[in-house]
Inverse folding.
């Protein structure tokens, strides 16, 4: 039960593990670090578990980036992440591979 | 992370529901009109299924779903109650309990368990006379309205719900498994990340739900989330899906008139909700009881104990001072303290009915296993006793009941040959008797054979070859280790655990066991236990300046011994009490107190326990006294005749006498001592 955030390159991060209530404060800290980079990108392909808490953290971080006139790209959602986002009707927050490549 | 409260509630509720199911199933065959019973069984299974779905315990959900299908067939009269069906449903209940227990440990059932579950449902559905798929459909029919309709759902999630371990996603997933979630929307805004509390919920959810579930079923899905949510469920103006043209088979009221609004205050239902014959209720039983940690109760009882002692001190001082008003005030307080003590002890009292009810199942299963026909009759279930005692009485009772079924009751053929009804009876009974509770296990079987018992005891060397025993003494041999008269060792009793273990367990609770039996007619084992282990009303007596306390429930009367009969003092061990022989003991001798002075008078306190009487000779009678039992230290463990100690108001220590033990000693001494009585 843990959440890891690794920086893969400048402005690019990868989250892995469980993005849920058990790691709520770790998730918040990780997202704050990530959002402090303008136009950061987060790879979500290694997320194995996500709940409503995890979704909220992602949404709040994206919201924060937009307030600061930046952007946060969420990319490569793992199946559990896609499923949860769809269930809540917010699947649009994830950038499609095309968008990622274009940027 | 704290233990997930909601999950805890789920497991507690599942436990209760499973208990209800067991009870209901065992009762089912006895009912003339089992409809009410079947409905509550159905509701229990249904609630377990629903809750399991919400928490993602899919194995429990899937299994109970199929059980529910069979119960539904029963409810609709497509299936009749039969012994085989009840047996199979009981097995299904057990399997559900097993699955719930696995879920509690966070484990998934292994292949073996699943296979067993499959076998049970297959059996059940075989009995129900339809294929698994048909049964599954049947189950749907209950909550399904048959046609799909669309609901608008607005769910304002309480801000703290996430922190309490409830995940809205799990509920949405559950809903999705029973319908379609369309156009979900999150509404709400987030603060900046620095102010963002990840455990707080900032969003509400709106979505359309297309399902064939009834309004009731949809609402029920939200049950666990209700406390902290506001929920509005509205049907869409024009029903989606294939609504039946004639509208007759659709149980709902006209679209548009139904509105279910649920707030944290409770459930407000406006308009007409669909009205199936009987709606599954969200909760089966209203919450009339609260759960209290047993340790808190123990602490309360302890404090009350101290209060009793403090009250006695104050009462004593008031009496010494002779201040009328103070004495009066103290008496009032003493009365209140007594009431508090009684109420506090009452909190721990539970009816024995629940313990007895468990045996319905045992008797049913065991009689089938043994190929005997046995009824269980229960009486005195409302008798109350201390919870700590109840917890410890289960195993000994189980042993006695099994013993009665296995060795007591004969096979139907034998019974018929002996001119008895084919069906044997095991009876459980409980009642209060002089400060004790008596629990009896009786059977109308073949009874004990005293000759066989005695022969066996002689073989084993428990009884000497020339020793003669009374009928009662012979029967008591059944409680000696290694003296089972069973010729055949079955897997029920005869597992190396004999009645001697029962006796030991009971004695550890300060209780006694007795047995009555008549050959060919039956056997009755009586267990006598103290009502509580904490506080007793005592009768204080003095011997050579020391105080002793006799449990008041055992005291029958007090008699003064006239001082003539000097010659016989210290020799006789029994007196003639109104024509009855009463053995007695001199506490002075027993506890080696100082010899009597010239003018000291003697009194006899007549005590009784379990039908036996004895006299205790003391110097002074000091009156009633509330006593908190303090256990004696290890040093005193070998001293006979003491059961505990207590602190008097004056700060002195008094020992509490172990009356059963003393009666036994007195009876023996009288039997062995010189044979002349003290005339009264």
């Amino acid at each position: 039960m843990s959440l890891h955030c690794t920086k893969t390159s400048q402005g690019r991060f990868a989250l892995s593990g469980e993005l849920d209530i058990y790691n709520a404060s770790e998730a918040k800290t990780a997202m704050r670090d990530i959002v402090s980079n303008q136009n950061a990108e987060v790879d979500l392909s290694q997320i194995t578990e996500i709940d409503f808490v995890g979704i909220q953290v992602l949404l709040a971080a994206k919201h924060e980036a937009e307030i600061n006139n930046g952007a946060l790209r969420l990319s490569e959602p793992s199946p559990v992440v896609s499923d949860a986002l769809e269930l809540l009707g917010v699947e649009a927050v994830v950038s499609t591979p095309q968008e990622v490549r274009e940027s | 992370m704290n233990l997930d409260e909601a999950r805890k509630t789920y497991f507690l509720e599942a436990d209760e529901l499973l208990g209800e199911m067991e009870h209901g199933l065992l009762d089912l065959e006895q009912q003339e009109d089992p409809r009410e019973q079947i409905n509550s069984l159905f509701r229990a299974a249904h609630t377990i299924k629903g809750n399991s779905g919400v928490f993602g315990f899919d194995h429990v959900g899937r299994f109970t779903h199929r059980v529910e299908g069979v119960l539904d067939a029963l409810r609709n009269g497509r299936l009749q109650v039969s012994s085989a069906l009840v047996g199979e449903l009981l097995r299904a209940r057990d399997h559900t309990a097993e699955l719930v227990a696995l879920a509690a440990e966070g484990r998934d059932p292994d292949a073996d368990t699943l296979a067993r579950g499959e076998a049970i449902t297959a059996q059940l559905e075989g009995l129900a006379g339809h294929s698994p798929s048909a049964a599954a459909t049947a189950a749907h029919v209950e909550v399904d309205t048959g046609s799909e309709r669309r609901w608008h759902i607005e769910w304002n999630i309480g801000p703290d719900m996430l922190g309490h371990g409830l995940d809205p996603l799990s509920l949405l997933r559950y809903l999705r498994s029973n319908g379609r979630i369309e156009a979900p929307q999150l509404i709400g805004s987030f603060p900046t990340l620095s102010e963002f509390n990840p455990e707080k919920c900032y969003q509400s959810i709106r979505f359309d739900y297309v399902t064939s579930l009834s309004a009731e079923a949809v609402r029920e899905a939200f049950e666990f989330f209700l406390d902290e949510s506001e929920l509005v469920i509205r049907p869409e103006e024009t029903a989606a899906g294939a609504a039946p043209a004639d509208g007759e088979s659709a149980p709902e009221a006209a679209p548009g008139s139904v509105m279910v609004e649920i707030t944290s205050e409770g459930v407000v239902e406006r308009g007409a909700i669909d009205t199936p014959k009987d709606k599954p209720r969200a909760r089966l039983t209203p919450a009339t009881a609260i759960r209290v940690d047993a340790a808190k109760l123990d602490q309360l009882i302890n404090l009350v104990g101290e209060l009793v002692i403090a009250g006695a001190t104050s009462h004593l001082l008031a009496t010494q001072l002779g201040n009328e008003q103070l004495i009066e005030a103290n008496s009032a307080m003493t009365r209140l303290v007594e009431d508090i003590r009684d109420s506090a002890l009452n909190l721990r009292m539970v009816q024995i009915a629940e313990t007895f009810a468990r045996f319905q199942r045992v008797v049913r299963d065991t009689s089938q296993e043994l190929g005997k026909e046995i009824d269980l009759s229960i009486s005195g279930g409302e008798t109350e006793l201390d919870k700590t005692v109840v917890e410890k009485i289960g195993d000994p009772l189980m042993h006695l009941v099994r013993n009665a079924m296995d060795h007591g009751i004969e096979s139907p053929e034998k019974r018929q040959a002996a001119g008895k009804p084919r069906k044997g009876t095991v009876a459980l009974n409980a009642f209060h008797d002089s400060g004790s509770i008596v629990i009896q296990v009786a059977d109308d079987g073949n009874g004990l054979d005293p000759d066989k018992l005695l022969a066996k005891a002689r073989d084993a060397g428990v009884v000497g070859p020339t020793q003669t025993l009374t009928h009662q003494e012979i029967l008591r041999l059944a409680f000696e280790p290694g003296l089972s008269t069973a010729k055949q060792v079955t897997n029920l009793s005869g597992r190396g655990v004999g009645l001697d273990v029962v006796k030991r367990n009971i004695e550890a609770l300060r209780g006694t066991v007795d047995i009555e039996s008549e050959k060919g007619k039956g056997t009755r084992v009586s267990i006598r236990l103290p009502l509580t282990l904490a506080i007793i009303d005592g009768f204080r007596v003095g011997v050579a300046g020391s105080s002793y306390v006799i449990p008041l429930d055992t005291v029958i009367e007090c008699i003064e011994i006239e001082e003539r009969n000097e010659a016989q003092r210290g020799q006789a061990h029994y007196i003639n009490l109104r024509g009855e022989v009463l053995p007695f003991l001199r506490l002075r001798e027993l506890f080696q107190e100082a010899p009597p002075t010239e003018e000291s008078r003697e009194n006899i306190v007549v005590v009784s326990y379990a039908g036996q009487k004895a006299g205790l000779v003391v110097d002074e009678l000091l009156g009633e006294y509330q006593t908190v039992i303090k256990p004696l230290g290890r040093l005193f463990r070998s001293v006979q005749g003491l059961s505990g100690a207590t602190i008097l108001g004056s700060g002195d220590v008094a020992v509490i006498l172990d009356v059963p033990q003393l009666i036994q000693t007195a009876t023996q001494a009288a039997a062995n001592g010189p044979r002349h009585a003290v005339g009264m």
About this structure: The longest strand of chain B covers residues 144-157. Confidence is low (pLDDT under 50) at residues 131-143, 238-287, 487-497, 675-680 of chain B. The first helix of chain B runs from residue 5 to 28. The CA atoms of residues 537 and 626 of chain B lie 5 Å apart.
